[in-house]
Design a protein that fits this description.
about 425 residues, alpha/beta, FAD/NAD(P)-binding domain, 8-stranded mixed β-sheet, globular, FAD/NAD-bd_sf, FAD/NAD(P)-binding domain-containing protein
Length: about 425
Amino acid sequence: MVVEEKKFVTIGGGIGSFTWVDALRIYGVPKKDIAIISPLHTPYQQFKKYCDAIGLTSSHRLRSDSGSRPDNYWGFPGYAVSEIWEEILADKPKAVMKTIVQLIMESLYGDFYTPSAGRVYKSIDSEAKRIGWSEMLYLGIATSIKKLPNTKIAVSLKTQSGATKIIHTHAVLIALGHTRKERKKGIISAYDNHSYIKEQLKKKGGKVVIIGRGATAAQLVEDYIDLAYEKGGIEVISVFRSKNVTGIDSRKLKQKNILGWRLQQFNFPRASFGGSLIDKTDLLWSKASTIPRNSWIHKIRKAHQDCIYKVVGRIPDADFVIDATGFEMNTYSHPLLQKFAGRNKLVKLGKYFEVEALTSNESAVFLSGINALGNGYGPLDSFLGQQYVTDKTIDFLSQQNWSGIHKSSPKQLFMEWWKWIKNKSI
């Protein structure tokens, strides 16, 4: 059995792993000291798969802020500035002015600026190449995590060829992402490929029911309304457990709504990511909501008036029922985390997102993203939330002699940022 030594290991290989590895490389950790265990070839592969399934293509806008850039440790320039610069270079003055006006007027008039999915994928590809992501990647699946008597951590993995490897390490970041829900027979997941539904509706018409009122449900409703106008004979139905017609949400706060849809630009206010509201999670936590895009609001209002779309409280008889209520919210529903949680009884996280039972003066295990849910920091499952976790782990590691990581001076960080601007490999 092959045993290797690596100083840092991340399990998952998605965007949470990517932000962590990006920061490690910026702080001077060489590629030879990092292992990324993942079945994914690119950090956004799983994310893109889910986006594609719900019809959110590369040209569609995400529910994310301009400064929430997984590829940019500093957050500046944001996606909006990059987009404006590209439009200037492409000699598109109208597009430049449109984006600038949108940024200036957001929250006052019109839609907020959000990046397109394609822009996010492209920027992550560029940064992954710059830091040497593929050279650190171990294509496979982690099967166990154990603390060794010498205080190191042993991570076992099975490679795509079926071989077993063990990596001994000082630091592990677990960022496995979401686990799919088990659904009742006859109910289709929003994240499955359901192009066959559209093909059948095109040919025969029928009713399609969509359960949920978050951003995923809103995207699916829009897609099926477009199909209904295109082909006719199609009815689109949303199922909400309560219609929320009062405009008062679960926090006793006033919230815009339309036809029972709760409207909110982001899941959390910007100040909750690291500003004055960071400790106000209970107050800020909202039920499922969607983006108040003017074009979307106009579309569902018109469809409702034309009797193509309606909202009900129970699942009616229909040709297809799609569950868009999200993912499994049990933090330890992933098989690896079930073993992990079972062995460590209660997984308690410290202020640096470290698993206290597995953290010592010589090693540390961290959780990121949805896997760290319940630690008291609300916006974990977001681009900026995962960067916040990364920053806290770097704070922890910089205090450990074995890590070799030291907090950089403003001058050093500026030089690293300049390398990023120039897209210079590190």
